[in-house]
Amino acid sequence: MSRASIHLVRHGEVFNPDGVLYGRLPEFHLSDLGQEMARRVASHFQSQKNDGAKLVHLVASPLTRAQETAAPIAAALGLEIETDERILEAENRFEGLSGVKSRLRSPRYWPLLRNPMKPSWGEPYVQQVDRVMAAVQDARVRALETGGDGAEAVLVSHQLPIWVTRLAAEGRRLWHDPRNRECTLTSVTTLDFEGDVLSGVRYAEPSADLLPGAANIPGA
Predict the structure, then answer these.
(1) Is it the case that residue 188 has pLDDT exceeding 70?
(2) Is a pLDDT exceeding 70 seen at residue 24?
(3) In this predicted structure, what is the pLDDT of residue 102?
(4) Residue 136 has what DSSP assignment?
(5) Residue 127: phi, psi to the nearest 5?
(6) CA–CA separation, 5 vs 39, rounded Å?
(7) 185: which DSSP letter?
């Protein structure tokens, strides 16, 4: 039975001085700090490769911030970036707004909050898990075809899709408090597989020392 590992990487800090919930909006680039975070996570994977890890496949969401985070990883590992829309940010009805927390006091937005367990303001959590796990399984197969037993792939995605995928992988409920997500900027959530069966989940924060003071507005 072939072993494989899929690393789900959240993008780095985004330049977003107006505090917009950017969601799937185009042209939100990494900040200078975000670029440093991207280099940091690239070094994290380069060190693993130097220690013998078979990092053979790299995929990124089509959104700018994910592509820019993937670029130094591609350079460090000598891989091409493949783009997969299945790992992009979740849809969100608040996309494009700033100061979302204060706007929730307005009755005009209350209908969007009628079912936080789905959630009613955006793409259902179950739908996010289904599309991300489909991409993960495809990446697992591609990695094994390229690298054989023990092959690994990196998928650069976004906080909410990664987090709900982890919740599902660990058998936990999908609805949650966004403030409690363990998925910091350029964090690495690793799904380990034995054959096509998930055997474990790991988590790492290569940019932990860069997080204090970083802007961290969830895209969804």
Answers:
(1) yes
(2) yes
(3) 84
(4) H
(5) -65, -40
(6) 21
(7) T
Burial class from Cβ neighbours inside 10 Å (0-12, 13-18, 19+) for residue 16 reads middle
Between 49 and 110, the more confident residue is: 49
Cβ proximity of 123 and 94 under 8 Å = no
Classify 3-210 by CATH class.
alpha beta
Among candidate residues 73, 39, 38, the one with its CA nearest the CA of residue 185: 38
DSSP 71: H
Q: Is the dihedral of CA 207, 211, 212, 214 positive or negative?
A: positive
Sign of CA dihedral 208, 48, 72, 91: negative
Structure tokens at 93: 């009805």
**Region 192-210 average pLDDT:** 97
Task: Calculate ∠ Cα 173-185-120, nearest 5°.
Answer: 40
Residues 6+ apart with CB under 8 A from 61: 11, 67, 83, 84, 85, 87, 88, 89, 156, 157, 158
How far is Cα 150 from Cα 113, in angstroms, rounded to an integer? 44
In the block, tokens 């992009």 appear at: 88
In this model, does residue 62 exceed pLDDT 60? yes
Cα-based torsion angle of the residue sequence 155, 159, 160, 166 in order, rounded to the nearest 10 degrees: 60
Q: Specify whether the CB–CB gap between 155 and 59 falls below 8 A.
A: yes
Q: Dump pLDDT digits (tens) for 68-97.
A: 999 999 999 999 999 999 999 999 999 999
Which residue in 12, 25, 4, 56 sits closest to 197, CA to CA?
4
How far is it, in rounded angstroms, from Cα 192 to Cα 219? 26
